[in-house]
Structures are given as C-alpha cells and as structure tokens.
Amino acid sequence: MEFLLTFLISLLLVVGLVISLTYGRAPTWRPDRRAVFHLMQRLQDGTARREEWELFIGIAALHDPELEEIRRRCVAVHEGDADHSPAREGLEPYLYDREARARLALIMADLEQLIASEPYYRRF
Q1: Which H helix or E strand runs over 80?
Q2: Is 115 exposed, middle or buried (0-12, 13-18, 19+ CB in 10 A)?
Q3: What is residue 113's DSSP assignment?
Q4: What is the C-alpha to C-alpha distance for residues 113 and 107, in angstroms, rounded to an integer?
Q5: If you count Cβ atoms within 10 Å of the first and of the last residue's Cβ in the chain, which end, N or C, has fewer?
Q6: Alpha helix positions (H), the chain
C-alpha cells in the first residue's frame, strides 16, 4: 500500500513537471526604451533600486541595437572607460555621485531623442 501511494504521488509530480515544462515559456527580459528612460529618471531622482539598475546594465538588449548602445554607454559610466574613472557611490538615496549622474543625464537625453524619433504604431 505504501508503495502504491508513493508511486502515485511521484507520478503526479512528474506529470505536473512535464506539463509545466511543455506549456510554460522561458523567462525573458526585453525592456523597451520608455521603461529604460523611466529607470534612468528614477536613477536621477534617487528612487531607483540598485537591483533594477544592475539588471539593466548586466544583460544585453539584443532585441534593440540602439538600446544596446545606450546600455553600453551606461556600463562605461558604471565601470569607467579610457577617459573616465568608474562611477563613485552617491550619498543616500542616490546610486552614483553628481559627476556620474551628469554623464548619465547626457545619455538619457540621447535616449529621449531615440524615443521621440521611433515610429508610432497603432493596433486596431
């Protein structure tokens, strides 16, 4: 009797796993330009969470080449490049100091121009 009960419970778990893997989909992270712009606004305001920002700069945005270029420029601010040293920590609640936020504001202005120039789609 114990064997039958164990077998049925195991069978239910395996069937549930197979169904969830069959009909589930892989998690994806595809931010759009407006979401990144709002994230950068929150970074300027001091309301962005470090986890959100690190997710943005840590994962490539291969679905949008222009957004990937913006992300790479943000990584250059975060990690530094040939012309600038890495961004320093800001005072609470800001993630970065004033100099880094000023550099990010320039990138944010370019992102705003990208958003303004993207085509407008309407679904009917």
Answers
A1: none
A2: middle
A3: H
A4: 10
A5: C
A6: 2-23, 33-45, 50-58, 65-79, 98-117
**Beta bridge pairs of residue 89:** 96
The one-letter amino acid code at 36 reads V
Structure tokens at 40: 């950068």
Rounded-to-10 torsion of CA 69, 71, 73, 78: -160
Contact 96, 89 (CB under 8 A): yes
The answer to whether residues 48 and 39 touch, using CB atoms and an 8 Å cutoff, is yes
- Residues across the chain: 124
Q: Is 87 helix (H, G, I), strand (E, B) or coil?
A: coil
Looking only at Cα atoms, what is the longest distance across the chain? Answer: 73
Tens of pLDDT, residue by residue over 60-119, are: 988 889 999 999 999 999 998 888 888 888 888 899 999 999 999 999 999 999 999 887
Partnered with residue 87 across adjacent β-strands are none
